[in-house]
């Protein structure tokens, strides 16, 4: 079989196709570069940094862009003061490294650092939160955090001191939505907790089931009913929320409140009784007051 060299016309067609392919690639790179360098609504307003819980995903029709909605639990940096705890922020990002591998799950506890873009919703976005934050710079990030745990009262207010006649509750956030967890109250571990440590199940330990809400939060759960007993070593107690119920502390998935320690128990001191007066004592007191009164009256007239 004889091979023939490409004709001039064939070469021209091949060059045209190659040039068109290169042009398309360059246009895509330019578009991605533009998306990665600016807010989708063109309203860059400074860098913000916050922590919160993933609540869902917006609908984004833009090619090469992704997003996740995060409810703010803690504001770390907000120079202009636009954010408020409890607000929902839509975190948008170009689907290019290092943001291409962002995997958001409802209930995840995350920390975000990015460009604040205000509140206006881009035309091709829907279901966005109260604010938009765009990730594009080298110092921007979206990262998972370990779940949290805290000792609290029945309304969820954190507590670190309990009287022996009070009940201990536990709360948490950042867990997988709709799952059950085990909650342990254990003696404070002064040397700290390490990933893989077994959770003690002896002594004054309370284990209870708590159902995680659809937002990843654990509402106050009663974990130790009064009467309480101070730790025998005087070092207090820690709370561990075992997310996968395996009896082992997993730093990436379990909640821990170890504080210094999580909480202490104090014995309530009984009130000192007020001595009661007997009838004879009352008569004697009245007589004494009368004598004092007569003495003062006589001195006044003298």
From TrEMBL:
Lineage of source species:
Archaea, Methanobacteriati, Methanobacteriota, Stenosarchaea group, Methanomicrobia
Q: Which species is this UniProt entry from?
A: Candidatus Methanogaster sp
Protein name per Swiss-Prot or TrEMBL: Uncharacterized protein
Q: Which domain of life is it from?
A: Archaea
